[in-house]
Amino acid sequence: MTARPPLPPESREVRLVSLPDGLPRPEHFQVVGTPLPRPAAGEVLVRNRCFQVFPALRTVIGGGLQDTPFPALMPGDTLFGAAVGEVVANPGPGGPPVGTSVFHYFGWREYAAVPAAGCVPLDGSLREPVEYLSQGALAYAALTRGAGLRPGDTVFVAGGAGSVGSTAGRTARLLGAGRVIGSTGSPAKARTMTGSLGYDAVVLREPERTFAARLAEAAPGGIDVLVDMVGGAQLRAAVEVARPGARFALVGALSGQLAPDGDGTTAPVGLDSYQLVVKRITMRGISGLDHPEVQEEWNRTFGGWLRSGEITFPHVRIAGMDGAARALHEVIGGRHLGTVVVTLT
């Protein structure tokens, strides 16, 4: 048996060092060294391989929302998020054994003491560990549970180039959608979305005053399903263009989360409630915690589609902890298409 290398005395992690006035920037974070965590009873020590950078961190910096599972981040706190790593120590007796690859939510650090109950061993359904960081399960839940996608439906994905939306278009197509429309603010992203991500048409979100008209042109018969990561003007436009009986799955609210003049915790929007009644539109908020069975179902389905070439995992890899804060700034600014992950050696 090959001997494992000794563990280092120190681990590095990304901490919030000051509260931003507006959107967070790299100078609000710092990579710091800390003594290697010692797992307590019921914990295991995980060496992280990669972790996800997600824009909703803005919502919990300095505040957060009630009734969500994410704690507020204050100066001195280490950031968190979905991660994949390898168990390198387990004081036992339970939990995954040393050498097990696991998924958990203690990213943004090289080594993490993780509750054994919070570690999910990778089941081998996907080809690479990084693919377990896909947000496709949320799109899949929105389409299958939230909106009840039916064969032939016209689907509009608001925010079609992000970590959820970049997978949602092809997923909707593979689940039987007749036409799939997305939105983005970037012409370059729009070309990729129609070229390889399963979208029939893409509506650019600027200028907002014409968005509803542009959506109507892309969906001349109206939309049956909305998967919404944005809210705001795009949600209002979806109500205008909806067919009778349309089903809306509300996944996120980036219009408020990433508003420079707000705190990321509200996303107000004015809707024509008369249209909701007349068209019998249903709206349902969807959280990744609502349907615990979806993740395993998605992994099996996603893995099969990946191996057959029917879908891809659009993502960007940022190498090293030192680039993590910059990556968050770029994600909030909409620079990248797909899921952004930081990889650690």
Name its key features:
345 residues; alpha/beta; Quinone Oxidoreductase, Chain A, domain 1; Rossmann fold; 2 domains; 7-stranded mixed β-sheet; 6-stranded parallel β-sheet; 10 helices
Share of helix, binned: 25-40%
CATH-level-2 architecture of the largest domain = Alpha-Beta Complex
Q: CATH H level of the largest domain: which superfamily? A: Medium-chain alcohol dehydrogenases, catalytic domain
- Overall pLDDT: 94
- CATH fold-level name of the largest domain: Quinone Oxidoreductase, Chain A, domain 1
Q: Beta fraction of the residues? A: 25-35%
Overall 3D shape: globular
> How many separate domains make up the residues?
2
Question: What's the total helix number?
Answer: 10
Radius of gyration (Å): 21 Å
Tell me how many strands there are. Answer: 15
| Unreliable segments of 5+ consecutive residues | none
Structural class comes to alpha/beta
Q: For the terminal residues, how far apart are their CA atoms?
A: 22 Å
Summarize the biggest pleated sheet: 7 strands, mixed
CATH class of the largest domain: Alpha Beta
**Topology order in helix (H) and strand (E) letters:** EEEHEEEEHEHEHEHEHEHHEHEHE
GO molecular function, one term: oxidoreductase activity
Pfam families: ADH_N_2, ADH_zinc_N
Protein name: NADP-dependent oxidoreductase
Domain Enoyl reductase (ER): 22-342
